[in-house]
Amino acid sequence: MQRALFVGTLLGAALLNAGCSESSTPAASTFTPLPTYENREPEGLISRLSGFTVDPEAYFINLANCAPPPAQCALPPLYAEFSPLLQRSVVRGALVTLQDTVPDPATGMPPAPGAPVPSDAQGLWTLPKVPTRKGAPFFVLSVGQGTLANDVPPPFLPNVPEGNYLPTLTIRPVVPGHSACVGLEALQVSDKGILEAVAKYLTATGGTAVTVANLLDPARFGGVTIFWLYRPGFPVFRVPAANTTVEATSGRVFNIEWAPVGALPPPLAPFQSTRGFFIPPGPPAPNSSLGLVAIVHPPLMGPPGTVTYTAKDATTSTADNRPWSLMPLALPQIPGLVTFAGLQMSPAVPSATPSIPPPSTCLPGQ
To answer: Using CA atoms, how far apart are residues 255 and 37, in angstroms rounded to an integer?
Structure first.
């Protein structure tokens, strides 16, 4: 801004001097200064990052309990501040920070995350002083704690079983090239939902007891990556993409299902988690009716590798503009935490109207 005002003043003076000339070939002026470039941009610019914490398992359970199938829920299925589905899914007192992706020159590894900030009673958080830069992104990292907002109206929605929140990295690149980055998700995964279902399945089928804590033990597993695929729509539209899955170049893929607790037949009951998620025994299901997939990685045998994930849609429908798709994602294998990608898929025929996100979304390439 200072540089723009400085140059603008010089140009204004030049135009004023030209307008007052009486000859087309005036003598050299001693009044008009020559416009020279002077960099007055302040160094050490910072960006203010803000967003919300949300438990995606709780959001889905609230959506499922809103109206029994085939009825439609009267509440909008949106990650929006006015929606009770989201208000009852935010996490209070969650600890949120950023994971840098620029390697430390001394170690060759990304630096340790900065000090986390807590989310407030509405699940909102703010990191006020993040270095402004373009290029390599940050990722939002939830350290793992907090309380679910089960007490928010409407009261007809039953409480979601609470659990302990786990360290969760949200797969959504953030490039703080703007003064403010807003609406950033900090996703929180509990130990009573998807990961409990994975642990129960591995225990029942592998002959060795596995707990959720074991899944995050680098000596036993190389981390867990969760994909929750959503139908195309508005950017805050969150409805599971039925009959989809994810293929991975490494790791064991599990397609996850859900049912109300206690609704499964006795043979399936031991596989169900406290929150209702389960993996059916027998031959692996080819896809998930919820678009919900967990990939369990083997322990690292050397430096962390990169795994490529490809979303697959099993349905072809002109009416629904399917098959839906996603660009393949290459993500690092990170032991000791949950990597979560909650992503909207793209329709088979994209809209002719381009969607240009505002700079405050701080996406790569802006």
So the answer is: 59
